Amino acid sequence: MTKPSTSLNKFLSSTGICSRREADTWIEAGRVKINGKVAQKGNRVFEEDKVTVDGKPIRSAPGMVYIALHKPPGITCTTDLRDKTNIIDFIKHPQRIFPIGRLDKSSSGLILLTNDGDIVNQILRVENHHEKEYIVTVDRPITADFIRRMTSGLPILGVMTERAVVYQISKFVFSIILTQGLNRQIRRMCEFLDYKVVTLKRIRILNIHLNDLPVGKWRNLRSKELQTLKENLHKANRH
After folding, report:
1. What is the maximum alpha-carbon separation in the chain?
2. Any idea where the domains of the chain sit in the sequence?
3. Measured between alpha carbons, how far is 1 from 129 in angstroms, rounded to an integer?
4. What is the pLDDT of residues 156-175, one digit of tens each?
5. Residue 98 in 3-state DSSP?
6. pTM
7. pLDDT band at 210 (very low <50, low <70, confident <90, very high)
8. For residues 177 and 167, what is the distance between their CA atoms, to the nearest angstrom?
9. Are strands 208-209 and 218-220 parallel, antiparallel or unpaired?
10. Pick from 114, 82, 117: which is nearest to 95 by CA?
11. Which range in 59-68, 108-117, 176-185, 190-199 is most confidently predicted, on average pLDDT?
């Protein structure tokens, strides 16, 4: 029976000390050793192996973290610690994690964070058309024409937005489900129709729902949620 192993660059990146690309550079420069021998690209790491970088031992990859945060307005989805409003300092998680995608500083709602680089890449692939749902409040009464035009697509940033699912909730509030991720897309769409967004909250990403998670709080994804998420991503990546 073959022992389980991990590619060296994936092992290094999963510890949070570097990206896979950086790991390859370190390996090529001869900075990485496995059991005292200079490593080569393509090497694999087994459970009992001792890996060092510049002579310093590297611990095995930490357990995978998958978090759902109810981001409050004013927090920036950046890992740049020089930004005093950065999301990493706000959460204060003991492991090195990073946000999946972005949510505008002035917006609130669901954002996912993880230390799993593979799932980040899968979620961010534009061609997968992953659903994201928002509740939006605007500054003047919503009309049937507004809903129709938001649904059918609008010209912003030099492109036509893809069709969206939009329905009115109340006089000033509507829900929208997007499968695109253009910069400030909902705000720009509303501005095109002479509406101004007052509040914008994301309530769902794929099968992960915000539900009653309090503002500013986070929780670990439930095992069933994570399983369904990975199954959906696997199906999307096969098409």
Report:
1. 70
2. 5-58, 66-126+208-238, 131-205
3. 39
4. 999 999 999 999 999 999 99
5. strand
6. 0.75
7. very high
8. 9
9. unpaired
10. 114
11. 190-199
Give the single-character DSSP code of 237.
H
CB atoms within 10 A of CB 38: 11
State how far the Cα of 45 lies from the Cα of 75, in Å rounded to an integer. 38
CA neighbor of 13 nearest in space, from 128, 98, 107, 102: 98
- Amino acid identity of residue 109, one-letter, is G
* DSSP character string of 6-17: EEHHHHHHHTTS
Token output for 172: 């000033």
Asked whether the beta carbons of 34 and 8 are under 8 A apart, the reply is: yes
Q: How many CB atoms lie within 10 A of CB 237?
A: 12
Nearest Cα to Cα of residue 136 among 78, 197, 84, 86: 197
Q: Helix H segments across the chain? A: 8-14, 20-28, 87-91, 117-124, 144-152, 185-192, 223-238
Active site residues: 104
- Looking at the domain 5-58, which fold is it? 3.10.290
3-state secondary structure of 137: strand
Of residues 102 and 235, more confidence is placed in: 102
Query: 190-217 b/e with 16+ CB inside 10 Å = b?
Result: beeeebebeebbbbbbbebebeeeeeee
Length of the chain counted residue by residue: 239
Q: How far is CA 21 from CA 12, 13, 44, 117, 121, in A?
A: 10, 9, 16, 12, 14
Q: Which helix (H) or strand (E) element contains residue 181?
A: none
Architecture in CATH for domain 66-126+208-238: 2-Layer Sandwich (3.30)
Q: Give CATH for domain 131-205.
A: 3.30.70.1560
